[in-house]
């Protein structure tokens, strides 16, 4: 009888728990060491709670626009939000309960599948063992395979240390029991934009401090421009080309200092200035695991590190800080380590979404790739303002953008800006992953009226005479 492969996983986030499930499925003896709670930050302090908060704020946004659908309060108020009071304590209690319930469900599944969970901190002891420090002492875990999936934590500024009350990082906002009078959000990336959007929808005065010319500097410029216009129209104050260097409490509020000497006064400040990988002090370098200059674990396309038998997954690797990517890295690691058929991680097929209103979803080739000459893809952009379903639902801010190769018409990327972009992007993601041509894509039926109809219309507009035959020959 062959020996059972001993797998030790450090970190119970999406990369860790998905790897544990695959490892158990393939017959490994799997031990998962976790110190922060099963599900990691994705479930407990990031994706699940933040998107739950955003879901609540979306209800308020819908009510605010109800008059455009002919809906009014009994008193005749055009803005239905005037008849609703936000109980932030109740909202955050629900958010935390949802996160804890999701964590519990995942833990139950792991136990059911035969995964042993050890609650404690872990460090590598070479490449064949992990030492777990628990409340009962130290336990040495022999390992044939080790997966490091330790995640990341919020970056802080030396002169803006979070206190959990007025100066907050993105893990602490759920401590609030009352709506801030004036929330300053430092950082206009994905996290900053999402929280600025959510709190504005809940009726909070929001000021967004951005070091760049426009919000979402790393995203599609057309999409960022739409969101910036929406933010400004809704009354969010955006301070562009400004870098925050400090935050201090003063009375019942906070003062945020900018690099140019200006100060911004508010009741609370949320620092959303990036993250730092949890890779220090856990024996990685001593075991021969290479880290880059920022401290991220270096991995290849099958999640291998530079140390034999040691794999990496999730935010600690610096490969797209997305729960879906962490989960896929973890699965790939186990498939590879335990000898199953394994696909390489194809970054060009990764879909992502920003949960603002409207949402912004992307996959594949980007506008930046084209502008900088890295791709020769052709592009078409379809505003949603002419879409019948969009008109029915009362929104005009959004578009569909598709990219395809010039000769074959193969779809290589796309951007969707719409209320449900996170759902709509899957069709484009599938097209990119399977190298579907714009003709084949547009020949599939869509429902009328639907937002997905605009994706098919964009594909039709990318058709050129004779393209189908050429695509068939090249495939």
TrEMBL record:
Keyword line: FAD, Flavoprotein, NAD, Nucleotide-binding, Oxidoreductase
Record GO terms (molecular function): flavin adenine dinucleotide binding; NAD(P)H dehydrogenase (quinone) activity
EC class of the enzyme, as a word: oxidoreductase
Catalysed reaction, written as an equation: a quinone + NADPH + H(+) = a quinol + NADP(+); a quinone + NADH + H(+) = a quinol + NAD(+)
Cofactor note: Binds 1 FAD per subunit.
InterPro entries named among the record's database cross-references: FAD/NAD-bd_sf, FAD/NAD-binding_dom, FAD/NAD-linked_Rdtase_dimer_sf, Pyr_nuc-diS_OxRdtase, Pyr_nucl-diS_OxRdtase_dimer
Co-factor(s): FAD
Binding site for FAD: 51, 315
Binding site for NAD(+): 187-194, 274
Occurrences of domain Pyridine nucleotide-disulphide oxidoreductase dimerisation (ranges): 350-459
Family named by the database record: Belongs to the class-I pyridine nucleotide-disulfide oxidoreductase family.
Record's protein name: NAD(P)H dehydrogenase (quinone)
Protein species of origin: Raineyella fluvialis
